[in-house]
Amino acid sequence: MIREETVFGPIFSRRLGTSLGVNLLPEKGKICNFDCIYCECGWNKDGRSDTVLPTAAKVHHDLQSKLETLQQQGVKVDSITFSGDGEPTLNPEFPAIIADTVALRDQYAPTAKVSVLSNATRVHLPEVFEALTKVDNPIMKIDAPTNELVARINQPSPGYDIARVVTALKQFKGNFVLQTCMLRSKEYQFDSSSPEVLDGWMQIVRELRPRQIMVYTIDRATPAQDLELFTPEEMTRLVQPLIDEGFNLQIKGALAP
Q1: CA–CA gap between residue 244 and residue 235 (Å, rounded)
Q2: 20: number of CA atoms within 13 Å, CB side?
Q3: H or E segment and range at residue 168
Q4: At 36, phi and psi to the nearest 5?
Q5: Strand 113-118 and strand 190-191: pairing?
Q6: What is the separation, in whole angstroms, between the first and last Cα of the chain?
């Protein structure tokens, strides 16, 4: 179970290179409107000991301090990445924090990209969408194509609607990154390779036409115990129709120990 400080790393990311993490959620807890069966942060119920969200002022202070240190050390940062212990856009100061971060990046690490890993549940909110258009890599999650299937793998809070998410993502006009985790689970009756998941997911990809699709599998300990990962070869075979159609896919398997 991972619990992150407000600013952490840099760490090596399979998808983003040398990544300086920013956690907009409690340092010793977890707040998310998903409860994904594969989440490396564990179940939501186990992360309720801390509910204090960092303010924009704290994020600015901690990020500036870290960037100054890394600059002095000559450490190159490829990405300033908003991830952490839950959904970053749940922080009510998310728009202000993004504006501050872009300014700090420009000052201390101008070659770094600003990336946000999000479950895309709040893109329909104008202030969230506007903030996401200011970052280099708005990385939005869709793991399954129907509300029923999303309920199995992501276990969202009440009110989730995949149709609303897809409509909201259309606002990007393709200028975003779609991320998808592929796995199997008998207990949760979910298999990313099954036609009910794969065919519908590929149709959403064709509808949204994101500039890049990140397909990956589980790499760390997960709260659900029966999950099976896919090999890079399996995932490549599954998404081959999209590759043949010219989509830009980045496929990442589990890292070797």
Answers
A1: 14
A2: 26
A3: helix 162-169
A4: -60, 140
A5: unpaired
A6: 18
Q: What is the pTM of this model?
A: 0.91
d(C-alpha 153, C-alpha 60), whole Å: 34
Strand pairing class (177-185; 228-229) = antiparallel
Q: What is each CA distance from 33 to 23, 25, 181, in whole angstroms?
A: 15, 12, 17
212-217 vs 228-229, strand pairing mode: unpaired
Tell me which DSSP letter residue 176 carries.
Answer: S
DSSP type of residue 194: S
| H or E, element range at 181 | strand 177-185
- The tokens describing 14, both together, are 């399979």
The Cβ of residue 191 has, within 10 Å, a number of other Cβ atoms equal to: 20
In terms of Cβ atoms closer than 10 Å to its own Cβ (0-12, 13-18, 19+), residue 140 is buried
As to burial, measured by CB atoms within 10 angstroms (0-12 exposed, 13-18 middle, 19+ buried), residue 207 is exposed
Instruction: Give the DSSP H/E element, type plus range, for residue 62.
Output: helix 56-73
Q: What is the tens place of the pLDDT at every residue in 122-162?
A: 999 999 999 999 999 999 999 999 999 999 999 999 999 99
105: tokens are 């990046």
The number of CA neighbours under 13 Å toward the Cβ of 254 is: 15
Nearest alpha-carbon partner for 177 in 218, 214, 232, 217 = 214
Per residue in 160-186, pLDDT (tens digit) is 999 999 999 999 999 999 999 999 999
